[in-house]
Amino acid sequence: MLSLLIGLPLLGAAIIGFWPSKGSPTQLRNIALAVALGILAWTVAIATQFDLASPGMQFQENLPWIPQLGLNYKLGIDGLSFPLLALSAFLTCIAIYGRGETVERPRLYYPLIFLVNAGITGAFIAQNLLLFVLFYELELIPIYLLIGIWGGQKRGYAAMKFLIYTALSGILILAGFLGIAWLSGSSSFDIGAISTQNLSLTTQLILLSILVVGFGIKIPLVPLHTWLPDAYVEASPSVAILLGGIVSKLGTYGLIRFGLQLFPETWSLVGPVLAIVGVVSVMYGAFSAIAQKDIKRMVAYSSIGHMGYILVAAAAGTPLSLLGAVTQMVSHGLILAILFYIVGIIELKIGTRELDVLNGLMNPNRGLPLTSAFLILGGMASAGIPGLVGFIAEFMVFQGSFSVFPVQTLLCIIASGLTAVYFAILINRTCFGKLDNQLAYYPKVLAVERVPALVLAITIFILGIQPAWLVRWSEPTTTAMVANITPSHPAQIAQKVNYFAP
């Protein structure tokens, strides 16, 4: 069943790529949308057979590939990967539909989108370290091309920066995985066959640190974040939705799956450092967003801050905080998607993203009132207003992390208040006030253009009212994952040092 989730986007890419040249852009878009909906439907079919009570891997597939290298085609999903898998399928549909029918070079554009989807999906379900790296790298070149060809004025610079940073991330992750397998004496790179318990504390810390930096680039964490504002801003809205909504989750997913799960004894030692890095990212993202004049760049910096919440929650390593981390991943993806989409609509209809130029969009006659309403909802969700999915995600993160990191959690709560500040600035300057130009009648947003925002808004609202529909998929898995984490008390640290000493 899982292989079909990889095969469908690859098949879609092949069909569109080799479609006869007489095929119109509308036909190619309809084919791409049909394939994307097929991927989503198959994900729903898997959900109907998913055992909510099981914390372990389900729907496993295992075929020998290159046994001499320890590389096997081993797949599986659990409560950590499945919500992100569903998010990926959902946002791929949004990205394809939201791009409209005017995309240039559709025979290249849509196959690249599907290659990104295949790489992300494969990474989430891979249960072999080398297989994960292969899928992790698969989305690198397609996203580079999507930014470099269909991006903004500085697309070349942004695409190259993304390529360099992400390539370095992949190199570090591969080095860490090779070190884990070789030093632990494992003949296979299968996750279930690897144990780090026989490694010294120093070795574990070095390997874990390599993975933290590698995945930290992808998240990205401060100071490894400098590629993000350029890539998100220069990417088209649809590509930005994929980048911020799901590609960045490969970093947080990898950190939990391969950091916390493979190094449960050492995780508690690096937890305080990770929590500090998370707080720095949260505060930096909030203050940087406040200083922006470009609303798309403001949303990009807000993403840095909200990804920091996930790191703090993962560092705390409690059942509730880890469950909150998974919920925050999904919440962040949905909220960022609606914000980037609405920003794209505003730029398309008005021709600018500058706060100093935009105003009066709530004007019922000459403005974009419904678009402004969606923007307000996205800002409220990002600020953690009760009743929306952002609130329950942040509340779980704060509640689960406070017992372990009270100071860091309080700083994150303060940063959450700053989120309300910069979104209040954005909404006040763009949506309210009077239109400066009395002759300015902005083009109306068509009903078909509102569909992605409407679907995202309904999803954000429903999951905010019924968060159990989201958290029930992950709770058994996250509870089992943190069961092996040892609290980092001084006496226990001393015992570990003596135990792991060579």
Tell me, rounded to a whole number, the average pLDDT: 89
Kindly name the structural category. mainly alpha
Strand order in space, largest sheet: 1-2
Q: How can the largest sheet be summarized?
A: 2 strands, antiparallel
Q: Could you give the count of β-strands?
A: 2
Q: Globular, elongated, flat, extended or rod-shaped: what is the shape?
A: globular
Which spans have pLDDT < 50 for at least 5 consecutive residues? 488-502
Radius of gyration, CA atoms, in whole angstroms = 22 Å
The topology string of helices and strands comes to HHEEHHHHHHHHHHHHHHHHHHH
How many separate helices? 21
Distance N to C terminus: 45 Å
- Helix fraction? over 70%
The amount of beta strand, in percent, is under 5%
Main location: membrane
Pfam families: Proton_antipo_M
Keywords: Membrane, Transmembrane, Transmembrane helix
Subcellular location: Endomembrane system; Membrane
Overview of this structure, please?
The model is unreliable at 488-502 (pLDDT under 50). The protein has helices spanning 2-17, 25-48, 82-98, 106-125, 129-138, 140-150, 155-184, 201-218, 227-234, 237-247, 249-260, 264-290, 295-316, 319-350, 369-382, 389-402, 406-431, 447-465, 468-471, 475-482, 490-500, and strands at 58-66, 71-77. The chain has 502 residues and is mainly α. Helix content is 71%, strand content 3%. The chain has a two-stranded antiparallel sheet with strand order 1-2.
